[in-house]
TrEMBL record, chain A:
Entry keyword annotation includes Transport: yes
Major location category of this protein: membrane
Designated name of the protein: Transport permease protein
Membrane topology, from the record: Multi-pass membrane protein
A Pfam family hit: ABC2_membrane
Compartments, record wording: Cell membrane; Membrane
From TrEMBL, chain B:
Entry membrane topology: Peripheral membrane protein
Organism annotation: Nocardioides mangrovi
Protein name from the UniProt record: ATP-binding cassette domain-containing protein
Subcellular localization(s) per the UniProt record: Cell membrane
Gene Ontology molecular function, alphabetical: ATP binding
Superkingdom as given in the UniProt entry: Bacteria
Length: 268, 252
């Protein structure tokens, strides 16, 4: 078998291991998915009435009910938060591997260096799909409706998975570089905050000067706008190109960083 | 899976090996050779550099200077070839506690690319060899310290490596588990496997090793068969040798 075939086979073996972990440690998945669900409820019922009334005309007056309008604006943002929450838990899982000695065992095996990491990343994708389904179901139950065609839904799922892939590799690198499980659970904190400084919860142009500029240009904004366009059945335009470019670039850089950090990770 | 042994190639050849942690030297120019099919015990007090030595030889850590060849391959330039020849049981348990004992062994068998039926058979064989049949389908987190150690070693043996590193394999084990582990090392030796172990227990080196290297302060202060070392220090036991030679080193 070729090196590539072995790399695929080793990664598959590692995915099986990581999926078994998720099955045997279900409270982790429950906690991870509960966070965005709570955010969805909080932002719809606590802030939704006021926030919806403040949305600019074309976004705000769609249904005549500010809370329903805000739920419509908010749902894509909460889907992105779900993906981020899953990635963040991956940082903790890889840091746990690194402090438990098993990572040294993997590092003394003649397997692809990336295989243990790819196992984590693919298992995170499975968790992401699960999380997105649960959050969408809650949003639908609250009254969210989408005009998306099949192509629109495919675009939405593709955007979420591509972003999930990018932030998961970022979190794997952060988890390995952080040196302890405690540090690994804090390292991806900015990822939870960054969506607030994007067009996730309020339009970017409603923010003052430099903050508005930052919100307009940081990676979460094109991702969220692409997702909104897909779910609303409109064309995402240049946002989609920016979203793909950011995700591909972050994935590539963080993959290299994570594999390098894996080679250096020391136990204890 | 394993590279064929070239007759006459030593299992380990180390020359002028140096390593430091920050500006603190850990190994200060080490030379040693371990012939294939023998047991070498690296004996030394805490902090002597034993674990660093194992980490360098098992490709986990780069050396600062000198050369190290394992199974005829350079540990830095041909790390993957080295990895195909070795099995490593470190000082800390390297098992997956959320998986069962059997699943841990299957994981190793799959990563060694054994065919499916052979992988299952190998797992069962090792579970029985290490007395873990009854606990085979329980999560490793529920195992006692001795059982975890045995599973750890069984995982190391799945791919039938020709050279095994054991870093303080019996630290923290009760006397019976320790004797069981010695028995395993003797069986490996009978199969022609080379064993490189580190220990702070003199009795262990005396019991198992063909050659003992006494490591102190990052230098090999003495090397020989257990009998030679005892004669060298004029003592009855390796304890005398240990105290005499490491004491000498401190007074230098």
């Amino acid at each position: 078998m070729s090196t590539m075939t072995y790399a695929v086979r080793d990664s598959t073996t590692m995915v099986r291991r990581n999926l078994k972990h998720l099955l045997r440690y279900p409270s982790l998945t429950v906690t991870v998915i509960a966070m965005p669900v709570v955010f969805l409820l909080l932002f719809t019922y606590v802030f939704g009435g006021t926030m919806g009334a403040g949305l600019p005309g074309d976004l705000g007056s769609a249904s005549g009910d500010p809370r329903a309008d805000y739920l419509h604006y908010l749902t894509p943002a909460i889907l992105v938060m779900t993906v981020v929450a899953v990635a963040q838990s991956t940082a903790i899982l890889i840091a746990k591997d690194a402090t438990e000695g098993i990572i040294d065992r993997f590092r003394t095996l003649p397997i692809a260096r990336s295989a243990p990491l790819t196992g984590h990343a693919l298992a995170a994708m499975v968790q992401t799909v699960l999380g997105v389904v649960v959050v969408l179901a809650v949003a639908l139950a609250l009254g969210y409706r989408s005009d998306a065609s099949v192509a629109g839904w495919a675009g939405a799922v593709g955007t979420l998975l591509l972003m999930g892939w990018a932030v998961t590799w970022l979190c794997l690198a952060l988890g390995l570089a952080s040196g302890s499980v405690e540090a690994a659970s804090n390292a991806p904190m900015p990822l939870i905050l960054l969506p607030f400084l994007s067009s996730a919860f309020v339009p970017a142009d409603s923010m003052p000067g430099p903050l508005g500029w930052f919100a307009e240009h940081q990676p979460f904004t094109p991702v969220i706008e692409t997702l909104r366009a897909c779910l609303d059945g409109t064309g995402p335009g240049s946002d989609a190109w920016w979203a793909v470019a950011w995700c591909v670039a972050i994935s590539a850089v963080c993959f290299a960083w994570a594999v390098r950090a894996f080679g250096r990770a020391r136990n204890g | 899976m394993t590279t064929p042994d070239t007759p006459g190639t030593p299992a380990i050849e180390v020359a002028g090996l140096t390593s430091s942690y920050g500006d603190q030297p850990v190994l200060r120019g080490l030379d040693l050779t371990v012939p294939a099919g023998t047991v070498y015990a690296l004996l030394g007090p805490n902090g002597a550099g034993k674990t660093t030595m194992v980490r360098i030889l098992s490709t986990l850590l780069g050396a600062d200077g000198g050369t190290a060849r394992v199974a005829g391959h350079d540990v830095r330039a041909e790390a993957d070839a080295v990895r195909r020849s070795i099995g490593v049981t470190g000082q800390f348990s390297a098992i997956d506690e959320l998986l069962t004992g059997r699943e841990n062994l299957r994981l190793m068998a799959d990563l060694a690319h054994l065919p499916r039926t052979e992988a299952a058979a190998r797992a069962t064989e090792l579970l029985s060899r290490f007395g873990l049949e009854d606990a085979a389908d329980r999560r490793a987190a529920t195992y006692s310290g001795g059982m975890k150690r045995r599973l750890d070693l069984a995982m190391t043996l799945v791919a039938r490596p020709r050279l095994i590193f054991l870093d303080e394999p019996t630290t923290g084990l009760d006397p019976r588990s320790r004797r069981d582990l010695w028995q395993v090392v003797r069986e490996l030796l009978a199969d022609g496997v080379t064993v490189f172990l580190t220990t702070q227990y003199l009795e262990e080196a005396d019991q198992l090793a063909d050659t003992v290297g006494l490591l102190d302060g990052g230098r090999l202060v003495a090397e020989g068969t257990p009998a030679e070392l005892k004669a060298l220090a004029g003592g009855e036991t390796l304890d005398d040798v240990f105290l005499a030679l490491t004491g000498m080193e401190q007074n230098r």
